[in-house]
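Notes, p. 3: input format for complexes.
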Amino acid sequence: MTAPSPQPQSPQAQFARDQWYVAAWSAEVGRDLLGRTILGEPLALYRTEDGRAVALADRCVHRRFPLSASRLDGDRVVCGYHGFTYDTTGACVSVPGQQRIPRTARVAAYPVVEQDSFVWVWIGDPDRADPAAVPRAPHLVEPGWVTVSGMEPIDADYGLLVDNLMDLSHETYLHGGYIGTPEVAETPITTEVDEDASIVRVSRHMPDAECPPFYARSTGIEGRIRRLQDIEYHAPCLYLLHSRISPTGSDTPVFRTEITYAITPSGPGTVYDFWAVSRDFALDDQEVTDFLREFNHTVVMQDVDALNLLQRCLDTEPTGYQELSINIDTGGLAARRILAKLAAR
Ligand code: FES
Ligand SMILES: [Fe+2]
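Output follows (345 residues plus fe (ii) ion):
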């Protein structure tokens, strides 16, 4: 008998640098400065007059006033305290009361890629930023899909949100009456790990399941359903749940829903939970759109409340607590291993 291999313990997870992270929805970045903190680094985000998203370090070099609380003058940021002015590269181009600008007067400018309605920023060594490495979520912008979305900050370590999303058996208990039915927790999963690409796939295929209100009310299906859940987690940030629903016993029609999360650590014990639900059916039905926005927001808040509570418990427990894992945790444990590896690089 072989000894069980050591399991990665629950968070505090370390942060993986030299990675792309979602800083905002595209629609959140405009001609007003937006402050976001990613991996503990404060950023000020805005859009130039010709529409390009910019991310600068959110601390004026003079006395560290937040640039996100300052104002734009064209494409430049004018510090709201004493007027140091920065261009889109972070270089200071004007200071008050003197012609000479100190050579060190500049703030960091972060590499930015805007893609699939997300503003991605590179946290780490800018020379290593490869825009082609940003993972895709094309359903967020492609025709043929309608999306509802939002963002909720959570006062919990980002590893707790990864755990939560990798193990959907919690739908049955935490989201019963919304998206959970008994079959989700009852049906075993299959897990595949691509270590090189840092992708974890978890599938749960339910051939004959109760139809939860989320799908009954959006698709109009009245009876039982074939429900396929295929998770694809691109560590560290992008999580896709490919969901396909059809009436039990018939292969058509298939209602496809893409559930997208971006998991962006803000700092120790705090995470941005970007969420979206995209559907390929009832595209013009505003009632379905409104229902899914409202309903999914409720589901997200159930997770937010649970993780806030869980983090408070973890914060007060003695060190050395040994948690217990079972089959449902295979995907979450694989994700932890990959995140630990990325953080150690
Ligand atoms: S703190 Fe920004 S100009 Fe003084
Ligand atoms: Fe959940």
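The CA atoms of residues 36 and 225 lie 41 Å apart.
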